[in-house]
Request: fold
Amino acid sequence: MNIQIKQLVEKCKLGIIQEEPTRVSGGLLNRLYKVQTDKGTFAIKFLNPEVMKRKDAKRNHIFAETVSNKAKENNVNCLPAKIINGEIIQQVDEYSFLIFDWLEGKTVTDKEVTIETSKKIAKELLKIHKVNFGKLKEICKIYYNTKLIDWEFYIQKIENEKIQKMLKENIEKYKELDKQSVKSLEKISKNMVISHRDLDLPNVLWDKNETPVIIDWESAGLINPSMEVIDTAWNWSGGKDYFDKEKFSAFIITYKENSGNLEEFDEALKADYKAKFGWLEYNLKRICGIECIDDEEKILGEKEVIRTIDEINKFYLYSKYMKI
Reply:
């Protein structure tokens, strides 16, 4: 991949490379490289080739970075991809890349999140929800698939005995939650805004002034604002390892106090399972070889399936404490 990155740097006139590009920890779909040249330091994202084979993949990335640029224009603290020669996606042979200015920042862990951290993210999310995206909203498709998941298919297809057992143990509960989430999602689907839709801890960098900078906009699209508030508040209140009711409440209260509307909270709480099931199914497809480029991605898919099942079960357990 370093050969293609060097070709990319030359093509986009980013300068002369000072040292070998280095792979850094990135997202769960794409791979990220740090590249230092005599003109600056850049974060180069190698877009997953398997994902890019999808019909709308290129259009979706262009849309996402257009949303990010529009958010930046409206004072949202974020890091959009660079537009070079009028293009957002850069091509080298059959490979696709996004190029960003390198930001010296850090992510935080669940245990490092404070009430003040949670409040800052709530304010940033509301800023996104208030952006007038104009015609972008007209061309945006509703993201969530309301088709029920065929759980038996994956149980039969999966070879990993641990994951197969976890699915069997939860299948009846998941079937019911899936049906319930589809009904709720249909009820709130008329109220949609364009937003980030994946405002998890790894997708926010904190600069030296402890200011949050939102990255990784590839999931950007339409979402019910209450649904995104619930999902984001969950992520920033320890949701993946534990649940801190005080942090969750601080997020919700901050959003409301700054004129955020949460009238559809109860239905959105039920609908949120569809988003979580969507990510679970994508990773089930990875480990079944339906959407997978190599063994590394299959192993990542297995880890994500186990983590996501655990998270869904915790969300189900703690959802009774989620109030407005």
In short: The mean pLDDT is 92. Residues 62 and 87 are 9 Å apart (CA to CA). The chain is about 50% helix and 10% strand.
